[in-house]
Each structure stands twice: as structure tokens, then as C-alpha cells.
Amino acid sequence: MRSQIIAALGAASLVTMAGLAVQTQAAGRRYAAVDAKRLLAADSPANAGQWMTYGRDYSEQRYSPLKQINASDIARLGLAWYADLSERGGSYETTPIVVDGVIYLSAPWSKVYAFDARTGKRLWKYDPKVPGGYAVKLCCGIVNRGVAVWKGKVIWGTLDGRLIAVDAKTGKKIWEVQATDPTRTLSISGAPRIADGRILIGEAGSEFEERGYMAAYDARTGKELWRWWAVPGDPEKGFEQPELAWAAKTWTGEWWKEGGGGTPWDAVTYDPVTGLVYVGTGNGAPWPAAVRSPGGGDNLFTSSIVALDAKTGKFRWYYQETPQDSFDFDSTQQIITADLVIDGKKRHVVMHAPKNGMFYVFDAATGVLLQAKPFVPTVNWMKGFDPEGRPILNPEANYGKTGKGFYVVPASGGAHSWYPMAFNPNTGLVYIPTNYGSYPLVAEAGAKMGNQLLSINVAKRPQVPPPRLSGTGSYLLAWDPVKLQAVWKQRQGSGRAGVMTTAGNLVFQGWAPFFGTSGPPNLSAFRADTGERLWTADTQAGIAGAPVTYTIDGKQYIAVVAGTSGFGGDYWAPTYARLLVYTLDGKAKLPPPMPYTPPVLNPPADFGDAALLARGETQYNAHCASCHGNNGRVSSLFPDLRYAGQLWSSDAFDAVVIDGALQDNGMVSFRKVLTRDDANAIRAFVVHTANELKKSPPRPFRFGRGFRFGPPPGDASSTAGPDAGQYVPEFHHR
Ligand code: CA
């Protein structure tokens, strides 16, 4: 894309941009002086040392032209400085933004920090004071993936659906708007992108049966400029957009009562070459297609990639990656634009590797699917493509209709979820955080997973055995997007951490412990061409977000935020959250890790009869399990209640559960839905499970229910090649 942008701008514009850079230097330190011209020239010498937007530049390639740190000298990489971050209880998913010597990053609870990128001195911190009780409206933690910077402002979204702009220099609020209906279960966890002064943000909430939309706001004022709804509402009320009239024909029943889903909670890429914004939409809601749309239908525009006019929000093209999605196959994973040569022809393309396991290459202007193939060894939800490139669905996968349940491949957590991938134009490879496994799905209308309205019974298993898969687990994949083939797989890399690549023939990625894995959490660098690990550093805390790189005074730095215990990690273990910054010959050291004392399991004696325990289990599963785990499901987000001291006292237990004593921690009062008798039953059930645990301590690894990421390496037996019921569909445009 770079070359096309330069071609489009012409030589005269390049001269102007060089002049702009000189003026910027002369004016001394400028705060977040990002604008459209500067972003277009992200690789020019003046801007090469910046990381100005979530994906570094408009293309979202996460490729930096810097190469002072490279495959030859990487052994000298050491810690330059670190800064402590104080939020706990949720992963740091942020990609730091680095502009003109300042690092901006977001933290759990939608808080934002600014640091001096040279020294690590904290410049300011902003707390939007999201009410702790909002935690119950979130599917996936108190997370935030990043901020946008634009013309002296830092702009981001909050869990309770606000957009906030502060002065980049001081952290003082300039404006704030409510981007969602606060009475609903919509939240913002994604990073806004900015296209020529228009802030683009979507929201999360498909797991609560919401109706998704993408909107643009004026960066100067926060005023909403346009809104695009991802799924049709009640036809009786008319449609907001013309395309929703025909999208409604792909739905049956009364889908609007349950929202339909489609929330575009992460991916949005602005393409200055086409003037389009590419949006990834979320899964259908509730999950089984046959429950939300009982007469069938593809349910547009769920699980799709959609192109909108950046200026007006008008619909331009779409491709539905997972028709009739029943698998939580959001298509919300980050979207990359690039120039590739396919069949001897140079193409400006959109590349996408969503949860459903398929790698897609589209013509960026028209949306024509050029080619597609699984980037994991097999899939089983689709069998092939028709001549137009539409997926041929596997009828057995429509488990809401068959009533038999289904083990979907890849797992519902996604072959690739929100963890950003990267594209290196020098190697021509895309680096994808990849997970390969299966996940059991059994439909039951109205069933919840904790507080999520999924119509999936997580306690039931399909009436068929799990599929036999080879090569399952989590790894970093180097993928050739032209030949559609894996070039290398690196199991020292991760399927659950973001990626950055550089002109130094390097790929950087963090790693966090996970089910069935061991070893210190780390940041590693791999050779971009071969995948060989060249360097690694113990980061004490796991990493989920992506690293970035920048320069100051001619010196290159690598920055990443470490701060996750990882799913399956021990919530009670001491965790750290830090901004870590590395440079060649860096000599800083992290302090020694805090001594760790394992939690003491000390429940009171069992009480209550079988009826009370059964009532407690039902109430626990309905109201507590999504945050605190159940039946061996381990949650890193909130405490394991089996260890809670409040189990000893009904007054202490009620103070939290009914009266909301820990509201500020995110533990809201459940007075509206639970009586004190219910709370007593829950306490009896938790005490019982704690005593069960005490009698039989856990095995080192337990594959719990509700686990959404597929089995660990080696969990499934191995067979050569695809087994029955699995497919490697491939499509090439002719
Ligand atoms: Ca989802």
C-alpha cells in the first residue's frame, strides 16, 4: 500500500511532507501532532520512528521500517527502563501509541497513561471512573486495547460506552460523549481509529443479544457523524439503511427481539487508497443460528467484512465469512491492507484471518474474493466454496437444527482472535497468532453461560465424539498470503499475544502461561524469514497486547505492556503490570519477583441438604459462573470463591452478594435477582465445592467446561492428514 499511497500523492506532496517534518522538529516538542498527511507518510524518514495509530499506520500492517535492532545485533537487546502500572484483575490488551517522544497506553477499566518515551517518567494518568458494577455487562473482562491520537488530543472509548478526548500534553478532558445506550449491555474495548478527523469506533455486546453498529464521530467535538447498523431491526419500524431491507430477507422469525448481534468490537481499517473503511462484524446472537432465525437464512451482516464510505458511512461491499454463524465466529479480527502480486497481477488487497480459521484476500476496492484457504490444518464448519466464492456449509454443523450438538473446528475462541497479526512486505509473510482445536456446542434456547445469553448449554456435550486433530494448540504462524501456505510455525510463539514485525528481519511477540504450558512469561524476537527464536526476556507478567517500536535521538526502542496472568493462570499469584522498554545495550533490571505464597483452601464444614445445594448450584451457574468459574472452569478475571474468607459468615457473604460491599472492585450487588435465601444456597454450594477440592486437589492440568480456546498441544490423538468430517476448502478467483 505504501507505494500506492506515494504514487497517489505524487512527488510534490512528498516535498511538502518533508517540509512539514522540518517545521515539526524546529517547533520543539509537539504533543501528538498526528494528522492525515503525517499518517500517510508514516514510513518517511521524519516519521519512521513513530507509532502513530493502533496498527502503526492506516494499513494496520504493524510493520516498522526501523532496523537498528535487527537479526544480527538482537543479542544486545536489554531493558532500558520500565514503569509500573497499577490496575489489576484484567489483562492489559493495549498497543501503546508513540508520538514525538510520548507513549500513550490504555489499561483495565479504560484508564489511560502518558509516559516520557525517553526516561519512563509518567506525565499524566486519566481515570474515566467507569462504575465497578459495569463488570457484569462484559463478556470478556475489564479490558481496553488502545487509544487514538489526533491533533493534540488523545481519544479512547470506555467500558461503559463513552468516548473521551483529553489534551495530549496535560491529560485534561476536552470533551466526552456517550456513544452507546447506557441502559443496554454494550461496551467499548477496542481502539478507535481516525480517518481524516473522523473517529471510528464500534462496540461489544453480541453475547448479550445486542444489535451492533459502527459509528463515526468528529474528533474536534465528539459529535456523531454517521452510524451504520450491522443487522436489521424490527421491519415494522423501517430500516435505517437501504441494504438492511434485503439483509432482513436473510433472517426469519422475530430476530430483532434478541438483537441479532453483529457487534463490530475490534476491527476497523481506513484505506486512503479507496476511501473506504473496512469493518469486521461480530457473531450472531444468540449463538445457534436455528434459535435466533428458526426458518434458516444467512443472517446478514453478522460475521462479515463490510466496506463503508469513510466520509458518509454508506454501504459499499460485503463478504459474509461465516453464513449462519453458530460458533461465535466473530469476523472482528484486525484487517490489513497491502499490495500483493497475485497470478502475476499487482493487486491492492484486504487481508483477513478471522476466528473461523480461513485466510481471505479481497480486492480492496470491489470486495471480490480473490482467494481463501484455512490457515489452520483443517476446518469442519464448511466443506468448500461455490464458484462465486460463497462457503458451502456443513449441514452437521447446524447443531441448533440437528439437535445433536457439534464439535466445531476451529474452536469458538477462534483460530485467530483479537490479538493483532502483522505483515512484513520484505518477507511477504503475515504473522498470525494461531490456535487450533475444537469446541463442543449444544444448543438450548434460553440457556446462559453465566450472565451471557448464548442459548448454549455449557454443561452438555455433543452426541458425537470429539474430532481427531493433529497439531493442535497455540503457536505463531508465518503465512504466505499469495501462495496460501504456512512457511513456519513457532510454538515458542503464541496464539494469544499481538505481533509486530520490522525491517530488521524480526518478529516480536509476548507470551503468557496457559493451560498445559509452563515457563516464564516473556517477550521474544524471532527471525522473520525462518521463525528461529533469537532473543527472549523474562517479563514476570504475561503479555497479551502487541509490542511497538520507535526512535528517539536516533536510538531504536521496543515497547510492550506486560500485565496478564493468562487464562488458567492463578488469580491469586502476585501479578505485575508494567510498561517495558528495551534498547540495544539496555542495562536496567526488573526487581526480583515477589515471594509467592499459595492461597490456603480453608472452607467451613459442609452445610445444607441436597435441595439447598441444588438450588445453590443453579443460582451459582446463572449469576456467578461467568466471572468466577464453574465445574473446573478456571477464570483469571475474578477471584476463585472457594478460597473466599466470606464463606465462613452468612453476614459477610450477604454484605458482598446482596449489599454490594465490593462494588468498587466490580462485584455489583445482586439484590435485584437474588434473595438472602438464594445467597445462602450459593454459599452452601461454594463451601461444598471447596471441600470437594480440598479432598481431591486438582491435577496439574484440567480441561474445564466453558473453556473457549481448544485443547492444549498433545491433547488430541494424532492422525496423518485430515480425518473424516474435516475439510481444507480452497478458493481462487477465476
Ligand atoms: Ca463473540
Structural class: alpha+beta
Helix content: 10-25%
Report the bound ligands by name, code or SMILES.
calcium ion
Spans of 5+ residues with little confidence (pLDDT < 50)?
A: 1-28, 566-572, 632-636, 700-720
Largest sheet: 5 strands, mixed
Distance between the termini: 24 Å
Strand order of the largest sheet: 1-33-34-35-36
The CATH homologous superfamily of the domain at 192-417 and 438-471 is called Quinoprotein alcohol dehydrogenase-like superfamily
The Rg value, from CA coordinates, equals: 25 Å
Form type: globular
Number of helices: 9
Reported CATH architecture of the domain at 192-417 and 438-471:
8 Propeller
Average pLDDT figure = 89
How much strand content do the residues show? 25-35%
Number of strands: 40
CATH class of the domain at 192-417 and 438-471: Mainly Beta
| Named CATH topology of the domain at 192-417 and 438-471 | Methanol Dehydrogenase, Chain A
Characterise the protein shown here:
- The protein contains nine helices and 40 strands.
- The chain is of the alpha+beta class and 734 residues long.
- Among the domains are: 192-417 and 438-471, Quinoprotein alcohol dehydrogenase-like superfamily (Methanol Dehydrogenase, Chain A); 610-695, Orthogonal Bundle (Cytochrome Bc1 Complex, Chain D, domain 2).
- A five-stranded mixed sheet has the order 1-33-34-35-36, with no helix packed on it.
- β3 and β4 form a beta hairpin.
- The longest helix is centred in the N-terminal third of the chain and has 25 residues, at 2-26.
- Mean pLDDT is 89; it is low at 1-28, 566-572, 632-636 and 700-720.
- The structure holds calcium ion.
- Residues 206-207, 282-283, 328, 330 line the site of calcium ion.
- Calcium ion is lined by residues 206-207, 282-283, 328, 330.
